[in-house]
């Protein structure tokens, strides 16, 4: 009887925790320097704007620490720096916590899986950076930097936290490193990279939940390249490429873009301009955003082989969608549009089909999305 009572109590406690869980989204908008906090209703996908914080001019990439306690946000104007905000565990409210220099203007920000290091990728300076994060969540002013080929666009550690990978858009390479847990130093694995098809433009990364596979979106090709990860060495081996751009979109191959021609104003040709890549929590679905057509493409993931199968492409209302993000249960997808004044919520079906169910006002030029599930009153 006593054991039964304990089990019942545990179940009740578990249900209580779930019942009071809250899902928050934080979205940066460099056009007005804001970080907007939203609350996502996990029951129906409704999205409510809670609060907006003046983070600083050109606030862009962000990262939440693995413990969910701190949000880091990079400012892309001189002096380049990262702002740290503590996250209230109940309300999700942000409070300024720390500041630290960054090596360059960062297009991508992440932490390692233990929250001990802050990693950055600089598109304009062709650089990766690593800096330690202390126990008070203060990033170090001492920064390790690594020169890459043209246009580093992302950097992330794998689920085992032993390896680091980076998308190097301008060289059609995916960089591969081993992470030194004591110093944060990156050591090249083998030659330090794997090549992809010319004019692919490796951009953002996604890992399978079991850490066996890495997926890389091609900004210029609209394809996703799948790699297996050697469990011992971290070396990547290409296992397949899936095209996410159906012919009906009538998009020409993309081109490398930078500060000189970011909008290709002198080129009227509609071109592929893929952006973000996200994998569902159960690992069965991969979604890719495409800016020119304002759409999201869905791929099925074979859990046993890591191979991809294109499912379909779905239009979204957010114009020029940049980042997308799954809710923690994979039921909803958040979409920002650089040229939209709304953030949208979409119900995600098992086959990747999207149905818009909610929206909220966004900041100007909304880009980066970080989602956090926490406790609430």
Automatic annotation (TrEMBL):
Q: Which UniProt keywords apply?
A: Carbohydrate metabolism, Glucose metabolism, Signal
Q: Which Gene3D superfamilies match?
A: YVTN repeat-like/Quinoprotein amine dehydrogenase
Task: Reply yes or no: does the keyword Signal apply.
Answer: yes
Which processes are annotated in GO (biological process)? glucose metabolic process
Q: Return any one Pfam family short name.
A: Lactonase
Cite the SUPFAM superfamilies for this sequence. Nitrous oxide reductase, N-terminal domain (SSF50974)
The family assignment reads:
Belongs to the cycloisomerase 2 family.
Q: What is this protein called?
A: 6-phosphogluconolactonase
Q: Which organism is it from?
A: Pseudomonas endophytica
